[in-house]
Amino acid sequence: MSVEYYSDGVEIMMATLYLTEQYTLVKIEGEALRVQPSGGKPGQVVRVPINKVEQVLVLGEVTLTTPALHALLERRIPVHYLTARGRSCGSLVADWGKNSGVRLAQYALCRDVAQSFAVARQCIAGKLLNMRTLLLRYARARDDGEALVEAAAQIRRCLRELARMESPTETGDRMHGLGPLLGLEGSASAAYYGIFGQLLKGDWAFPGRVKRPPTDPVNALLSFGYTVLTNQVVSLVHAVGLDPGLGVLHQPGFGKPALALDLVEGFRAIIVDSVVITLINTGQIGLGDFVDELGASRLKDEARRTFLEKLEARMSEQVQHPLFGYKVSYRRCIELQVRLLAKHAQGEIAGYAPFTVR
After folding, report:
1. Rounded Cα gap, residues 301 and 290, in angstroms
2. What are the chain's domains?
3. In terms of C-beta density within 10 A (0-12 exposed, 13-18 middle, 19 or more buried), how is residue 293 classed?
4. Is 85 within 8 Å of 300 (Cβ atoms)?
5. In whole angstroms, what is the distance from residue 266 CA to residue 233 CA?
6. Which residues contact 143 (CB under 8 A, 6 or more apart)?
7. Spans of the chain below 70 pLDDT
8. Residue 129 to residue 306: CA distance in whole angstroms
C-alpha cells in the first residue's frame, strides 16, 4: 500500500488525505495544500501536492480555508467531515455532473415497489452471504468452530427465507413494507454478532453490536470503520452520478446517505470486520489504545492512524470479481457495484447482483 507521511496527523493513504491533527489550518498554495498545525513553527508546515489527492477525510477541529475548498471542488475532490470521535457530520462534494438521466432513472427505480424491493433484497443477500463466508473461514481454521458453523447455518436459513420473499403489496406502514425483509436481516445479524466475540483472541469483551455511542473498544473499531467506509462509498456514488440520499433499503432522511448505506452493507464484514479481527488478533491494537469519554469508547490518535492504514490496505487488496472474473481492488469492487446499480436503473441490465466472496 502507498502511504506518504507528511507529519503527525497529515498523511496520504492511497490518494485519501487524512487530516487528524486538531486545530490544523489548511490553505491552498499554488498546486499544493499548505497544512499548518496549530501553534506550529514554520518548519512544521507541510505541503501536499493536490494532484495526489482524490478525497479528503477530516477528523475533528480542522479548518480548510474557502480558497482551499474551492480548489478541491474545482477538481471534484470530495471532503468528508467526521468528529474527533469518528461520527460522520457530512460531506462537501462538487456539483452533480452532467448526467441527470441516471438520477432520473434512480428516482424511477426507487418509486417502483417491485424493482426497489428486488434491489433491497439483493443488498441484504450480499451482506448475509459475506457474513457467512467470514464465519466459515474462521471455523475451518480452528478445532472449536462448532458455534461458528451453527451461526453460519442460521444465516443460511435466513438466506433461504430471503430467496422466497416476495415484493410487498402494502407499503403504507412506517417500514414501507420492508418489515419482513429487515426482520430477516436482524435475525442473521444477531447470529453473526452474537458469535463475533469468539473470533477475537485475548480479553476483548464484546457485548454485541452497540452503536451511538459504542461503549466498548470492539464496537468503537467497528463503528469508526463503518463510518469511514460509508464516506468512501458516498464519494463513489457521486462520481457515478447517482444521488447518495435516495436508497431502496435505508429510508431517506435529512443529510442521510441512504444509497451509500445500502451499498455498504455487503462490504462491512469482508472489509471492516476483517480488519478489526486482524488488528486485534495480531496485537497491533490493544486495550490500552482506547479511552472512555462520557460513556463512549474512542481510539487514541496513534492507534487510529494504525487502523486507517490497515483499512486502506484492505481497500487496496486485490480480489477476483465474481461477475467479471478479473482481479480488482475492493475499492474498485465498490465502484463497480455503484455502476451496476446505475446500469440496472437505466434498464441496461436485467437485475442487480450483489458482490460476494468465497
Report:
1. 9
2. 3-77 (3.100.10.20), 100-345 (1.20.120.920)
3. exposed
4. no
5. 12
6. none
7. 1-14, 39-43, 85, 96-98, 171-176, 255
8. 28
What is the distance between the alpha carbons of residues 160 and 162, in angstroms, rounded to a whole number? 5
Read out DSSP for 158-176?
HHHHHHH----S---STTT
- Cell numbers placing 69: 475548498
pLDDT score, position 5: 45
Q: What angle do CA 98, 263, 353 make, to 5 degrees?
A: 95
| 77 neighbors 54 (Cβ within 8 angstroms) | yes
Q: What is the largest CA-CA distance in the chain?
A: 66
Long-range contacts of 150-153 (CB under 8 A, 24+ apart): 151/191, 151/192, 151/194, 151/195
- Contact status, residue 64 vs residue 58, Cβ threshold 8 Å: yes
Q: What's the length of the chain?
A: 358
What is the residue whose three cell numbers read 470479481? 321
Instruction: Output DSSP code: residue 210.
Output: -
